[in-house]
Amino acid sequence: MSGFWDGTLVVWDVQHGHEQMEQQFRANAQGIAFSPDGAILAAGIDDGTLILWDTRTWKPFCPPLRGHQLGIHSVAFSPDGTRLASSGGTGEEAVLLWDVAARRQVATLRSKGRFFWCVSFSPDGNTIAAKSDDGNLHFWRVPSWAEIEAAEQEQRSP
What we know:
Number of domains: 1
Structural class: mainly beta
Helix content: under 10%
Largest sheet: 4 strands, antiparallel
Order of helices and strands: EEEEEEEEEEEEEEH
Strand content: over 45%
């Protein structure tokens, strides 16, 4: 895989020496990760767009996901592949947590700082870490599915 500053992302079949897929974006693809089973490729784009591809067909799942107001700098799948974390440009949206199957944002993790990079899940999937541009590491406990559902129900009730 290669990314270019002109917004081009190219996936190569290194074993056979040919291009698998080329996609053009309005901005640079910053963060790229494969799901644990290899079935999905996620790319965070500098314009705040999160794109997911089916790696069997190299067709994107539609529509692209939006959540970050600024660019996405890093993406990471949870060890079980059910969640995706994307880190971004402000403390108000330091890390967004996504439900991979439903293709929707389920939580916003906030912190002080800006430009959050290098997002990662712990091996048990219960903690997310990201580094801010000031060099500090930030840690969040990942909300359980039950906590997410309870928060969503609370938001829906009058």
